[in-house]
Design brief:
three-stranded antiparallel β-sheet
Length: about 230
């Protein structure tokens, strides 16, 4: 999951946006919104009003972007935690499936050996019968043994069906969880890319503001009038 650098708040620039510095400390009547020289032109009240309005809007955007970045960072940490939990669950299911499969295969191997032994006994019985020997008792015993082996075969087939159904169910559950988790990642990445675009637009607008407002002076009385609603 790609994470872009945190939203740049340009602390030095915002400091310049937050308060003007007095150029004429002796009378306190001429200020600047940026780093204008004492010889820079003085804005009219309407020009200052527009610059202050833009300044306030830029501050609000910066605060909103900061809040959104904090939220995205918190979501990213949660996604990383959920990813670890998802992988741990996948590993646990994989281990459980492997254990169940190994146990079942061991049963199949043991049953296969019984079948081979039974077939060998049947071959010996048929050979004895071919010689005319009386093998009724042995035949009856093998018939009972054969029924038991057949029942064991049926049980193994049922167990195999149950095991495969359980594996398919576990896989479906994991696939659905992964799909939901991937959707959350995709959504986060999309919003993170939007934040990158927002940061770029903010920086461009700040640079425009600096050119239009930061390099000029204004009358302190004009700011007081504007701030008081005049």
């Amino acid at each position: 999951m790609q994470r872009s650098p945190s939203f740049a708040l340009l602390p030095g620039l915002l400091l310049a946006l937050c308060a003007g510095s007095a150029l004429a400390a002796d009378n306190g009547k001429i200020n600047t919104l940026g780093n204008a020289s004492a010889k820079a032109p003085v804005m009219s009240r309407e020009e200052l009003r527009a610059c202050l309005k833009q300044q306030d809007a830029l501050k609000a955007r910066a605060e909103e972007a900061k809040a959104q970045r904090l939220k995205l960072d918190e979501e990213r940490r949660q996604l990383e935690s959920d990813k670890a939990a998802t992988l741990a669950e996948r590993d646990a299911v994989t281990a459980r499936v492997a254990e169940s499969a190994n146990a079942f295969n061991a049963k199949v191997a043991a049953h296969t050996k019984l079948v081979e032994e039974f077939n060998a006994k049947m071959d010996a019985l048929n050979a004895a019968l071919a010689k005319g020997e009386n093998m009724d008792r042995q035949r009856q015993k093998l018939e009972r043994e054969g029924k038991s082996i057949q029942q064991a075969s049926d049980d193994l087939n049922a167990q195999n069906k149950t095991l495969n159904e359980q594996i398919a169910h576990d896989k479906q559950v994991l696939d659905e969880k992964y799909a939901g988790f991937q959707a959350r990642i995709d959504d986060w990445n999309a919003r993170n890319r939007t934040m990158d675009t927002t940061a770029e637009e903010y920086e461009m607008d700040v640079n425009v503001w600096k050119k239009q407002c930061g390099g000029r002076n204004y009358r302190e009385i004009d700011e007081k009038v504007i701030r008081s609603g005049g």
